[in-house]
Amino acid sequence: TLEEKCCGKLERIALPVFQPSTPDPAPASDQIQRLPSEGSGDAEKLKEPSTAQSHTPGDTSLSLALSLGQSTDSLGPYGDGDGAENQVQPKRPSLIDRQPSTVEYLPGMTHSACPKGLLPKFSSWSLLKLGSAKSYNCHTGLEQPSFLPGSSFLLPWDLVIRSRSEEDAGLMESLDGGSSSWPVPNKSLVGKRGSAGGLGRGRRRDDMARVFVGFEYEDSRGRRFISSGPDKIVKALGPGGAKDPATRVLNTDMPLYVPSPSQGRGLKPHFAQLARLFIVVPDTPLEITLNPQVQPGPPPCPIFHPEQTEVVLPPDGFWVLRFPYSYATERGPCFPPKENQPLSNYKVLRGILRATTANPVPQ
Length: 363
What we know:
The structure is a single chain. A hairpin with a 2-residue loop joins strand 16 and strand 17 (332-334). With 363 residues, the protein is mainly beta. The protein has helices at residues 2-6, 30-33, 49-53, 63-67, 83-86, 95-98, 247-250; strands spanning 11-12, 26-27, 104-105, 126-131, 155-162, 206-219, 224-229, 232-233, 254-255, 257-259, 271-281, 286-290, 294-296, 311-313, 317-322, 327-329, 332-334, 346-348, 353-357. The strands form five sheets. Strands 1, 4, 5, 6, 7, 8, 10, 11 and 15 form a nine-stranded antiparallel beta sheet that branches. Strands 9-18-13 form a three-stranded antiparallel beta sheet, with no helix packed on it.
């Protein structure tokens, strides 16, 4: 297979998927919910058939959620961006939180309106390790085919790591995980790197770590490029790589589709779609947490995320996250934008990466 020839030997972080315990598992649906539940030890009492039959086809709820006593209201209407916040609310302890179903699988992809306890048969996301952090050369960029000239360079993300001799606890604010305090603005780092003198001599000393980040887009003709902002392509003409910091792409909602830089002769516009996210984590006491959230359409389109919402990328790694090519719920696919639809409704939510120090704060 192609995977065996290309990336089958690469280290990866496996995302959880449906693991059947019966020879013929079935997708969760109202029709299955009205049948006797065979082999499901966690199904307690099915709701009355009249309750399930009262839903319209467009309002189809999933059988496992109903069989475990969850109200269909818990699925909620597709929100306008608040769905991801609902995921962090306190969970009610139940069997569904502890063990995913091994009898019924999710017929679509995981998203903000899914009932908990259902997993798809396969993941539409992929997270691979291409090598160590040193395998990426910031002076040559990504040495892969089909990139536009000068657009294969990842963006630097400079972070402060507290040194062991540091006594000022306030400096740790840059890595507290709060959205208001990271990424560290580059202008606050001037004069600190590699210098023991200056204004900070004798009273503050910061150890620095440089992460590299790249949002890669690819159009229908296979042209690839890294973006340095919602409306900008990386363009590195000389040695030294990209000069733009990664703070802009990390602190804003990035578009899922952008106009292709090569439109061709036709009148119909061509789009490039967000295909991959590259992250280079240096060999330093630093952990990068990956939390992708994609809204592939205007409300009430749900927010899609991998089967594991937060993944920690350990130090010393060159990682690539492959985004799904298409997004679909149990009700059908989310179609790409048409000519008259604003691209701003199709986006990857800000906060996709979070940085924390891996070492405990010295007392």
